[in-house]
Amino acid sequence: MMADIPGYYLIGINFITFVIFGLDKGRARAGKWRVPERTLLLLSLAGGSAGALTAMLLFRHKTRKARFVISVPVMFVAHCVIAAAAYLQLRVL
Known about the structure:
By secondary structure, the protein is mainly alpha-helical. Helices cover 82% and strands 0% of the residues. The protein contains 3 helices and no strands. It is elongated, with a radius of gyration of 15 Å. The mean pLDDT is 94.
């Protein structure tokens, strides 16, 4: 059903974002090539803010970077507001 697509997208993008943050943390510990910060932030902006925030807290990754400590929670709140507004709008229809 078409109404399920946004939910599947959010599950997928948050899973991917969580995994990429985890891989980047592992690479940081090993001194290997890193995922660019821009990529991590774009994944968060694309709807993966819950996965990014969870990974940041679980892996203690990017928690010293003000850019992440501020932007990821702000994106998470914005995504929650957008999701709630969309839910309420669909419920009214």
